[in-house]
Write a structure and sequence with these properties.
single chain; 425 residues; mainly alpha; Growth Hormone, Chain: A; 17 helices; transmembrane
Length: 425
């Protein structure tokens, strides 16, 4: 009976990735950039709408990035990880549904609602990660984590496929036009998110602390825990430099994902072609990640990360000069090939640079940087486009993030970091 309950907890946890990945595909990467530029910023200069989208993405990421460590530490103290996940998920769900009702021209309301939805999505992911250690023993954590990862790719891709059909053939669904279909797609994401969060609500059980502190005490303890984590990272120089490198290059990765459709629209490509390209990235991503995992073993983890980042830099450069839609499809395939690989190999390398006894706290910090990346890039790209009036110059600016990340990664002394960890310091 306990085994059956344990398995249900694993599936309930993994299905949350299936639930909320619909937001990252249909809303964040797919339809929101299109609707934001064409409907909520109708008649505005292309460069201005790009800047506004970049600002909304950056501010949402920054809010969560600054608040997450303290909120996470408080949830640890209170034993409310699942509760905190559901609160953030509720915010994301309500704001995603609200996007369907915002009228044309109201870009300020659309940007605020979207930013709140991103905060809900990103915040819930923080606590989703934190629950893994409670629903899977250490020996099974990689397998269970991969199950969630796989279901996220599949779930997000499936609903996005349906949403694309809705946008292309609205009459099949009894919808008046494409405008109505995209609004219905926002609602479908909210419903999908609710329905597939229910297994986590019902099946995942989080052990409660023997004594629960007051909210004030948890805030104080959480603050001390955060300070301790920061001190521990600074005491591990190789891990610290790696985290800096990771923050820069993963910010570049996040920027490409979030701003790609807006960039394609700025070049005059059809929106239907652009969102279709995202499906390619989605379905190429999962098997390609497994391949990169093998590459890390064959050529060394850091060299494989260099390879992936080198491809990202080529993708960025090619993107600055592309002039045909087929090139966008090809670049979407290339992003799919390297996106998951960068994430998986970076996690693997970081694990080698930290002591096992501190892995939970330090990985919490690492996950925060990874989940909430896209603070610098969207703002950088949007500002450059606004100043220069050129989307092509804007996309080139993202190379700066990759370049700094690669340089910092080259400064990490992996052997010394592993020796330090093995020596127990």
């Amino acid at each position: 009976m306990a085994s059956h309950s344990h398995q249900r907890g694993i599936y309930g946890w993994a299905l949350y990735d299936w639930a909320n990945s619909a937001f990252s595909t249909t809303v964040m990467a797919g339809f929101f950039p299109v609707f934001f530029k064409q409907v909520w910023n109708a008649g505005e200069p292309v460069a201005l709408s790009t800047f506004r989208l970049g600002l909304a993405n950056s501010l949402a990421s920054l809010v969560v990035m600054l608040a997450a460590p303290l909120i996470g530490a408080m949830a640890d103290q209170l034993g409310y990880r699942k509760g905190a996940l559901l609160i953030f998920a509720a915010l994301g769900i309500l704001m995603t549904g609200a996007l369907a009702w915002i009228q044309a021209g109201h870009w300020e309301l659309a940007a605020l609602t979207y930013a709140l939805a991103v905060i809900g999505f990103s915040g819930s992911n923080l606590f989703y990660d934190a629950l893994l250690v409670y629903i899977a023993p250490l020996r099974d954590s990689d397998r269970v984590s991969a199950l969630g990862f796989a279901l996220g790719y599949l779930g997000g891709g499936l609903l996005f496929s349906l949403n694309l059909v809705m946008a292309w053939q609205p009459e099949w669904f009894g919808l008046a036009d494409r405008d109505a279909a995209v609004r219905a797609a926002f609602l479908s994401v909210a419903v999908w998110w609710v329905v597939f969060s229910l297994p986590l609500l019902l099946w995942v059980h989080e052990p409660q602390p023997p004594s629960r502190p007051t909210w004030g005490a948890s805030l104080s303890r959480g603050g001390r825990q955060l300070v301790r984590t920061l001190r521990e990272i600074r005491a591990l120089p190789e891990a610290f430099i790696f985290l800096l490198a990771y923050w820069f290059y993963i910010d570049g990765v996040g920027t490409i994902i979030r701003m790609a459709v807006d960039y394609g629209l700025s070049l005059g490509f059809p929106d239907t072609s652009l969102v279709t390209a995202l499906l390619i990235t989605q379905f190429v991503g999962f098997p390609a990640t497994l391949v990169f995992g093998r590459l890390g073993g064959l050529m060394g983890t850091r060299n494989a990360i260099y390879l992936a980042l080198g491809l990202y830099m080529l993708i960025t450069l090619w993107g600055a000069f592309m002039s045909a839609v087929w090139e966008f499809y090809l670049l979407a395939t290339a992003v799919g090939l390297v996106q998951g690989g960068v994430q998986a190999l970076s996690r693997s390398l970081f694990a080698r640079l930290i002591p096992l006894r501190q892995s939970a706290e330090l990985f919490g910090f690492y996950n925060m940087l990874g989940k909430f990346a896209a603070v610098l890039g969207p703002l950088l790209m949007g500002t450059v486009v606004l100043v220069t009036g050129s989307p092509r110059v804007g996309i080139v600016s993202v190379l700066l993030l990759f370049g700094i990340g690669v340089w910092l990664l080259s400064r990490v002394d992996i052997e010394r970091g592993e020796q330090r960890v093995n020596a127990g310091t």
